[in-house]
Amino acid sequence: MEEYRKKLKKRFVLYLLVLVVSLAGIGIFFVFGRVLFGMDVELRRSFGGIFGILFLASFAGILSSTVTLGDENKLKKEYIRSTDERNLVIEARSSNVTLNIVMAGLYIGFVIITLFSDNGAGKVLGICCYSTWLIKSIVKSYYNKKM
Predict the structure, then answer these.
(1) What's this model's pTM, rounded to 2 decimal places?
(2) Residue (of 49, 61, 81, 83) closest to 8 by Cα position
(3) How many CB atoms lie within 10 A of CB 105?
(4) H-type helices in the chain, by residue range?
(5) Cα–chain center distance at 60
(6) Which of 19, 31, 37, 95 has its CA 20 to 30 A from that of 25?
(7) C-alpha angle with apex 136: 121 to 61, nearest 5 degrees?
(8) pLDDT tens column, 39-64
């Protein structure tokens, strides 16, 4: 149980680091983006939104970690939930299916953009498709050798 408490404390520090970086990102891109980088309003809003979502997610993680670390019963329930083999298998399978769905979407988008566009926009999407496939293949072969 103490090891899990240490893991939660490390996760808390990571959330805090992401919170600080996201605040810096909001400040740099959204507030000072025009002055520092000459960005137009839409691009500044996009970067500000991305860092804003990171801020909200890390803030929620900090709150969750604080509540879990503060209550012994919640800590025990979270420990049981995170170490339960059934939950771990469900997480692994759902991650695999999600990745396959995302890869299929990338491939379909790549084909559509390549067929109907002449400006080379499909190159980036194609690189994403094939690099995702390559990374998945490498990770799969790593775990097959490890098991």
Answers:
(1) 0.65
(2) 61
(3) 11
(4) 2-25, 33-37, 41-70, 72-83, 85-116, 122-146
(5) 14
(6) 95
(7) 90
(8) 788 888 888 888 999 999 999 999 99
